[in-house]
Amino acid sequence: MNQEIWTIGELARTFGITTRAIRFYEHEGLLHPERDGQTRIYRPRDRVRLKLILRGKRLGFSLSESRELINMYSPDADNRDQLEALLDKIDDRRRQLEQQKRDIAAMESELNEVEQRCRDALAERA
Question: Which domain range does residue 34 map to?
Fold first, then answer.
């Protein structure tokens, strides 16, 4: 797409989300469309920000974490701080996922144990 402006509907279709979600991100101060009467006009900056918000969501970042990272960006800087902060958040997220995997494995083990006890109890009654 080689446009310079988008409507809310065009962005919603492009990213497979609802216009309500886009309005929510606007309300949260993450998007700043121009207005032409009642029509919202989104520029490339808003499109990129929306793409980053959705990527952060897919990676499991909270909206405030995504906001923090996005707001750290400066077109006139090397953005080292932003990249280091992103790496820290990736490390944190990876640790959370590893803990979740351990928790799931423990739960599966406990389910298997309870299931076996139930089967053994049923077999004794047969």
Answer: 1-61
